Structure formats: structure tokens, C-alpha cells
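Subject: mismatched residue count in predicted assembly?

I count 560 residues in my input, but I want to confirm that the predicted structure covers every chain. Input:
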Amino acid sequence: MGIPSEFVKAAETAYAKPSIRINRRLGDRWKPGPGDVILEKVLNFLIGNAVSVGDIPFALRLHQEAKPAGVALSTAHLTSSTSGKLTLHELDENLRVFASEPLEIDDTDPNGAFLLQELSSDSPILHYVNRGFARIFAGGGLIHEFNPSTGGPVGTTHHFKRRAADYEVMITEHYEHCVKHAQRCKHWNDRPKRILHAKTFEASKTEFIFQTSLEQWLRDYIADGAEVRVELRAESADRTDIEIYPLFGGYFIIEIKWMGSNGTTKYGEERITKGLKQINSYLSTGHRARRATLVAYDGRDEANFESLKDSKDIAEGIKRINKDVPPRGSCYVLFLFNKQASSA
Amino acid sequence: MMVDNQRFKDVLLSLGAAMSHGVPTGLHRIQLQKFIYLQDVLITAWREVAKPSAFVPWNRGPYDRQIQNAVDALAFRGFVEVSNLVFRGTRNASSTYRLSSDGRNALGSIRKDITIEVEFALAEEIAREIERRGWSDIVDLVYAEPTYVSARNRDDARSLRTSDPNENITTQIIRAFQRAWTEGPTQQVSPDCFVQIAFLVLDEYRHSNKREKLDK
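Triage response: the counts match. Full output below for your records.
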């Protein structure tokens, strides 16, 4: 007997809950039932106090136990630090702060996220960035991003909401709306000369510029609670770029490459060959990986893009490669336009 | 009186677990039925222990007369105390049950068996989750349980085969979670976490039903 659709939906909604995701990362160190209650209490506190806290960043490490000592969590407590350092408050299950420690990093330093992620190996950490943005880390990974003033999502529109299994459509929609003309993905260093950034403030290498943008899009618009997993720490050789875990049935892998020049490195079609070998390897070793997709952002000349062999035009700027693609795999090459409206 | 021995154990476990989680005075007749139903569903889900089950989707939710027979027999033998007894008709009576000191001793004895100890730990987790939501919600929770809801919506169904993992939809849902937990950098998780997750799924179903009713 199959699972009725209303229960599939209920299970997927529960699966998307931060408390359950934290449990997935921390196992028995975080109990999802009582944890859900703590998170709700913290969220209610933030919704009620975000205006008073304003844009002063802080971090809360959440503990599933009652500590006898400590003071009740309050706006005054969170805003009292004047050192300019990011303060990590230890919070018990009754929302009592039993310890506070300034970290060796400025509260506006974007590397604070990396540090907190590392510190979240045993207990979840809520990072309040400003009154419009907060996130939760656990087990060294990002669990959830939300708007602390409303408790709702950080994103604004939901026209692009899709199920995780439609992730390939989402890749092309992300391209159309963010990357194609660099509308929201700022990858050009020298746009007329078609030189990409080697790194940016947020991304330590060219590939991460595209990865971060696509990851954010998927996080905002995946509708069935599937977990989008990307590690923020440095890559390792065998690590996939993005993995998507729906509750029912396997997971999906996205491998990201870029072609063209970033001023110091030049890449050509050999990146496609390498990427295809990688997804072939993921699909043969990851027993439950359902599909894997290689996405190559093409910053080379348009003539190079147009002359790609064994490819099929899907839409303007989008080609699908057919050769050497493994079963359950797919490969898209997405052209990076550099002409601006005035020069087009 | 023919009584399924399995139900003696279930009654002892459920009363023992409930009395230490929010209802020291014991469980009402309906609460006892519903508690053991959730226990059956969730213990099957986790352990897939085969046991005879004869729940039917009665007009007041799942009901197994073996439970009533078992608790009556345990009361007759002094293991269970009965209070607040109100008799309105043959199938319309209410009462509250709690373990007597002999019942608590019997529970202590059977818990020495490792399998039963695991079941008791699960029963305690179920009791804790119900306590968190309020014991008055137990009927609502059972009415949101997928196996029961599906059987109620089927015309031909007269029995709820909670012990059959293919019929027990909660088992299938928990299997999906269990599978998801085996992928990626996940940590080992104990059965009580899956009981908590099952309750969060029930909550989602209950809330979506309420939202639908409000929308109408």
C-alpha cells in the first residue's frame, strides 16, 4: 500500500523542520521533539524583539537541558556588548543565558559564519545577522535561513517554487533570472573583456560564485522540504558541490564547473570532460544518488559556445551535452552573456 | 474469558509509562485504547515485531476488545486499580485505570526481559510526546495516524493490520526517514527520536487539516 498524498506532504513538511534537520546532523545529541519546542520559543522571542535588537549581530548556542544558573534571555543582554566582537551566548532549554563569550572575530566579519559553523559540531548555533536575516548551523553545516522579524523565509517571491525532483528546471530558471546577464550573480570582473572574478568578498574562488548563487536559489525555492547541502569549508577532492536530499527517494547531485578566464586561470572544454567523469564516479559509488547533473558556466567567446559538439540547443544560451553523459546523468552548458542593455 | 497474553504486557507497559508522564491518576478507558494503538503502530514501525493485532476502525476510533479484556482480567487479579466507574450500558461505560503496587512489581519483573525493556522505553517516549501535547489530544492524534485514516477511508476495511509493515503506513513513513538518515553525514539516532519525528508528522497532518477547515 502506498503512502496517501496528504501524509507524504505532512512527512515532507516535518522533514523540512529545522529541529529534524538538526537531529539529522547531530543524531542523539539533539532530540527533535523537545528541540522543536526550544526553537519555537527562540523564534517567538526573536519575532517579538527583533525591532529592539536591531542590526546588532549575535550568536546563540542552544542546549537541550535546564541550567540552574543564568539569566533570562533579554534584549538588554543581547545588545549590551560594545566590544564590536561577535558574542556567543549559551542558552538553556528555558531560554536562560548561562554563559556569554566574545569570539575573536568582529561581529560584522563575514568569516563569522565559518567560525560558527565549526563551533556547531555538538550543539546548534543560531546566528542573528540582522533583523532581516538569521541562520542556524549544526554539525558543521548550514541548517536553515530565515527572517527573524517574521519567522518566514528570507526570499521574497515564490513564483519559482518546485519540487526537488525538478532541480534541472530550477538550474535553468536560476540561469535565466540571475546568471545569464549577470542580473544577480556578480561573476564579471571585466565584463567587456569577458574576464571573470577570481574571487569575491563572499566567494574564495570563481566556482563558488556560481555555486553560492545557485545554492541560494535552490534553498529559497525548493518546495518539498528537501535539504540542499553545501559545505562552506574548503573543498576536498571527492566532495560534490551541491546535494539535494528529498525525504522520499534518493538524492540529487549537482557538479559545477566554469570555462573561460578569471585573469589567472583559463579553462576550456576539458572541464566538461572532467566534470562528466566526476558525475559518472558519483553515480557509480553513491548507491542512492538518483541523478547527477554537471552545470558548466561558459565565460568563453560566443563562437566557442556555439561550436560545442554533440550538444543540443535547449533555449537561448543553454545547451545540453549528449556525448559521454552517464546513465542518470545530464550536462548543461550555460553561456554567460556580457553585453549590457546599452551595448546589446 | 479469552485474553490475548500480549495485551497483559501492553496494558502494564502503557499504564506504567503514562503514570510517570502526566497522568499519575491513570488512564481513562478510551485513552488506554488509543495509547496502546499508538504503541502498536510505533513499536511495529521501529521494531517490526510481529504480534497479533485486532484493532478495528470502530465508531470511536481504533478499538481492540482484547485490551478491555486484558485490563479487566488484570483488575480482577489485583494488578490494576479501577476508579471513576460509570456504567451506562453494555458498550457504554467509562472508568480510569492505574497500576496497583502489585502491578508495578509485575511491570518491574517483565522489564527484566531486554525486548520488553526496549518496548517500555518506546512506550515512555510515546507517553512523553502525548504529555507534551496534552492527554486530552490523544484521540485527535490517533485520528491523524495514517494507518487509521487510510483504513477509515476504505469501504472494505474492517481490521487495522498494524503489525503488517506493508499496511502500517506510519512504518513506511518512518522507513523513509530512516533511509534519509543513512545518507550523507548523518549521525546514529535512537528509536525515541523516530517516535518524536512520527509525532511531528502527526502534528503536521493535524495542522494541515485544521487549516483546510478554516479555509472552507
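The CA atoms of residues 29 and 95 of chain B lie 6 Å apart. Marking this ticket as 'not a bug'.
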